[in-house]
Design goal:
Layout: H1 28-68, H2 76-92, H3 97-123
Helix pairs in contact: 1-3, 2-3
C-alpha cells in the first residue's frame, strides 16, 4: 500500500533524483554531496506543493462562501495587508521581499480566478464585481 503525502514517492515513480548533466564530470565525493543537498531541496519542493494544495482547499471554501453571499472575488484591502505581512515575514526569513511579493501576487491572481469561476457557476454568470 503506498502512502500519499510530501514524502511519498507514489507520484515520483518516473523521477530520478540522481539525474544530472554533471554525472561523470565531477568527482564522486562532490557528486554525492550535491545529490544529498538536492535531496533536501526535493523534499522541500514536495512539501511546498502539498502546502499549496492545502492553501487552495482553504481558499476554495472562501470562494464558496463569497459566492453564497454574493461577495466580490477580490478583496484589495486584504491583499494589501497580506502582501505587507508576507514582505515582513520574508525579511525576517532572509528571503528577498520582492520575490515573496511576486510569489504571493501570483497566488492571489489564481485565487481570484478560482473565486470568479465559483461565483459564475453558483450564480449563473452573475458574479459580484471582480474588484
Amino acid at each position: 500500500m503506498s502512502q500519499t503525502g510530501p514524502m511519498s514517492n507514489s507520484s515520483d515513480d518516473e523521477f530520478d533524483p540522481r539525474a544530472s548533466s554533471l554525472s561523470g564530470k565531477v568527482a564522486d565525493d562532490v557528486m554525492a554531496e550535491l545529490l544529498a543537498m538536492r535531496s533536501s531541496i526535493d523534499n522541500i519542493d514536495a512539501t511546498l506543493v502539498y502546502l499549496l494544495a492545502e492553501r487552495f482547499k482553504a481558499t476554495q471554501r472562501v470562494g464558496h462562501l463569497k459566492a453564497e453571499h454574493n461577495l466580490p472575488p477580490a478583496d484589495p484591502g486584504r491583499e494589501v495587508a497580506q502582501i505587507a505581512r508576507l514582505r515582513r515575514l520574508a525579511e525576517d526569513a532572509h528571503l528577498d521581499p520582492a520575490f515573496a511579493e511576486k510569489f504571493l501576487n501570483f497566488i492571489i491572481r489564481e485565487v481570484i480566478r478560482h473565486h470568479q469561476a465559483i461565483s459564475q457557476t453558483r450564480n449563473g454568470g452573475t458574479d459580484a464585481a471582480a474588484s
